Amino acid sequence: MRIFPWLLACALPLAGCASVTPEAKVRTSLIDAGIAPPVASCMAERMVDRLSITQLRRLQSLAKLPEKDVGGMTVDQFLYQLRALQDPEIFSVVSRAGLGCAIAG
Asked: Is 0.85 topped by the overall pTM?
């Protein structure tokens, strides 16, 4: 299962054009990472509704870890890095969105 690393690697680049909503940016990034469009839409909707812009930016910072290939992380490694943010809400929202949307398809 490598959904979580893909989510993190490309899901949250929020800097950019002000006319594009955070949800659209997250959805586009997930699709670019190879997640199926319906799953990407589901995850983006859940994450943007439940996390603040600040939390999304903190999550984005994990994708910039210089010593890690986020796409190559196992689920356990990813969850460890996610917990390192020390924000239980981020951990809960991202893990539930990834699992729920992957199961819902």
From this structure: no
